Amino acid sequence: MTVTDQWHRVLGLVRLPDEPRILLASPDNEAQVLVALSRRWPRAHVLALEVGGRGGPSQSPEGIAVQQCVSAEAVADWRAECNVGLDLVMFDHALDDIVLEAVARSEGIVEGDRRGEHAPMVRAVRAYWRSGELERVARPALARLVGVCERAMRPGAMIVFSHRVAGVDLPGQPMDFYTDCLALARRWLTSSGLLLEEVRLDALDPHWWMCLGRAAATS
Fold it and tell me: Which stretch of DSSP H or E encloses residue 182?
């Protein structure tokens, strides 16, 4: 099943208005995810968030309005300017890039290849993973980004994470980290004090998919 088909199936499980406002972070598959969005909501407005400095394609499916966004701070600025909340936030295979970027900033690595076992960023991730330091660096970075998204969401909106792993996705990172990346993110976010809770959607494997919504208010 292609990335487009997978997201098309998942998007059929959520309810959105006819012209939803969607934040998309998909460093590798943005074009395919946009096609899935166009099938469901051809009049969607998409804010495409660059992860690790990697932007998406310049063209989008007919009808989809895509605005490139360079940082989490820009998401907050957009929310303040528009005064309209996001209906959906989509992280497609972006978790490992968020971790790479956090480690790169910690190590002062400005740029470099993100694939291959000898790439500086990947070697740094392996070193942090072996030393037990990865969570110290990556968890706050992930929590900050997801926190910005949460504050930009309208009531009832969701954040959907996908981290499916295929043979072509083996980038030289520690395999136990890479294949359990979503489980780690789930634990990190749970311990970060964000006002989010997991929402289970039928037919989604929780090892590869995670959906979060605003936590119910407590008295």
Answer: helix 181-190
Pairing of the two strands 153-162 and 196-198: unpaired
At 25, is the secondary structure helix, strand, or coil?
strand
> Would the pTM count as exceeding 0.85?
yes
DSSP letters, 59-124, are: ---TT-EEEEE--HHHHHHHHHHH---EEEEEEES-HHHHHHHHHHHHHT--S---SSTTSHHHHH
Q: How far is CA 64 from the centre of its chain?
A: 19
Summarised one tens digit per residue, pLDDT across range 121-136 is: 888 888 999 999 999 9
Q: What is the pLDDT of residue 219?
A: 38
- Give the residue, 158 or 176, on which the prediction is more confident: 158
Name the one residue in this structure whose structure tokens are 């499980």. Answer: 13
Non-local (6+) Cβ contacts of 3 within 8 A are 29, 32, 33, 36, 92
Q: For residue range 169-203, what is the model confidence (pLDDT) as tens digits?
A: 555 667 788 788 899 999 999 989 899 999 988 77
Q: 3-9+17-211 maps to which CATH number?
A: 3.40.50
Q: What are phi and psi of 65, to 5 degrees?
A: -95, 115
Per domain, the residue ranges of the chain are 3-9+17-211
With beta carbons less than 8 A apart as the criterion, state whether 172 and 184 touch. Answer: no
